[in-house]
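Handoff note, outgoing to incoming analyst
You'll be picking up this chain. Sequence as last confirmed:
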Amino acid sequence: MLRIFAFFFCAASLTAFNLMMKNQIPHTFQSKINDILNKNVVKGLTIVSALATTSNLIDVVNAAEGDTVKKKKPKVMETDLGIKYIDVKKGNGPSPYDGDFVVISYSAFLQDGTMFDTTEGKGKKALSFRYGKKQIIPGIESVLETMQVGGERTCTIPPQYAYGSKGVCLDKANGDQCLVPPNATLNYVIKLKQVGAGYN
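Most recent structure output, in case you need it:
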């Protein structure tokens, strides 16, 4: 067991030393890393992992402090209407213009994670409509505006750009038996599958 720890310690020290010699780590952090290597082999291995997988100094410092290497967070964007979205996959086809025929697939969720609608799965069909002609809720059109065919986005649509104060209810007067409750914020996963020229 002692031989195994000694081996890992030497490997950690050698990796850190090689990177220091290449000036990849400023001298202000070298002493801190050396101290940790001397006191704790496990933390030393964490540092080696960080040094081996990234050239970002922040990751090295996080490892020296005992944190795991932080993964890059997805960038949250906003449409002109202020709808937040994340590009899961960027497309390389055309974007829709007013009057174009558009084909999308989607899954729609309430804030508690309940799926209330989807075009995915056996027996389901993608949704076709004319872009810019108010044939779908404004929030989805806003998200589609800068998408390209082949792209996929997740988004959060506030009620004023979804189903508003009415929601989607069987008893609209009393707001009972609602598929979408009144004033509900919704989450969508949207895939832009096709864009075809239409007539304005």
